[in-house]
Design goal:
349 residues, alpha/beta, Quinone Oxidoreductase, Chain A, domain 1, seven-stranded mixed beta sheet, four-stranded parallel beta sheet, 11 helices, 15 strands, 25% helix, binds NADP nicotinamide-adenine-dinucleotide phosphate, ADH-like_C, ER, GroES-like protein
Length: 349
Amino acid sequence: MSQKALVVETAKTPFVLKSVPIPKPGPGELLVKIMATGLNPVDHFVQAYDLLPNVKYPIILGCDAAGTVEELGEGVQGYTKGDRVFFVPDLGASSGGFQQYTAISVDHLAKIPSRISFEEAASLPLTFCTAVIPLLAANPVGAGLNPTFDPNVSFKGDSALVIGGSSSVGQYAIQLLKYVGYSEIITYASAKHSDYLKSIGATHVIDRTTVALSALPDTIKTVTSSPIKLVYVAFVQAPEIMEVGYSCLAHGGQMPTAHPAPTKPEDAEATGRKIYGVYASTRIEPNIEFGNLMWKNISKLLEDGVIKPNRIEHVPNGLAGIAGTLPRFEGGSAGINGMKLVLNPQETP
Ligand SMILES: NC(=O)c1ccc[n+]([C@@H]2O[C@H](COP(=O)([O-])OP(=O)(O)OC[C@H]3O[C@@H](n4cnc5c(N)ncnc54)[C@H](OP(=O)(O)O)[C@@H]3O)[C@@H](O)[C@H]2O)c1
């Protein structure tokens, strides 16, 4: 049986839409018919610039998927054909999200609550992991704000800052800080997103179109008199953004980030400030233990409305719409505008 897939055959070559075999689910895996897949900056930067180290070609990209269970691999329990699931696909020659079917281990997925659409579910996997691992996982993986998803954890009275709050990652960081009870959640984002960001938990929005990044540490002091004990840096490509985040952080505070490998500042020990990076996969160490717990808890967080999916912009033409859309991630993702770009591979002409 064959399906349509979008393949990058060798480094820095255009996507090729082609027919490939439908994978067979191995032991402990499900075969999933993908009904929605999200676009992420990494898809563009790998295809166009061969950005990630150790990428093996050919590769099927696509880091977010939601769909229906079609077939159960040997030994799988707790799932039946037709279940709706979402997950971060493993990237590889036959496993990414830019295809109509993929196989995935049951340890790294969750069922989609009935109130959540496939497209909404596909807005979460990679960017939610990017926010939740460095924020909630126990030290030294993350800041340890709530490693067990205890509903009684509260940082009432504390203040936090999210730099890049309108990005997909930033929107989940804001919601997670609200979940663990921060009293003040200040975010640095374009003012056009203010109403939406306040609706998901931000208490103050500092407009990045009128306040230069370099002015952020001083501007925060006009917004709150409380020390900023937690800074989450949700957009990491901009020059100086990590340094500015660190400048906003109170001594003794913690700075989880979306950066895969942040540099530790020289005065970190002396000032008691800690920085955390993330490689947002729950399949690799040191993320596996927390990741397993995260997949067990994420459906309830969605079901209860604690975490709301991103708002969606539907990309037409299924897999055939990807190549023309990914360049919108160039130059700080200005063309993304706070939405998650999602498509349905089954709509591929
Ligand atoms: N480490 C990992 O494993 C991992 C995984 C996934 C993503 N990431 C990283 O996480 C970050 C967010 O990814 P995403 O998919 O959520 O991005 P996204 O949704 O494409 O982010 C788009 C938004 O970023 C904001 N932005 C752009 N430049 C900014 C700046 N200089 N300061 C503050 N905000 C800025 C813009 O906000 P406005 O509209 O408000 O101007 C834009 O709407 C990226 O840096 C990405 O590389 C890391």
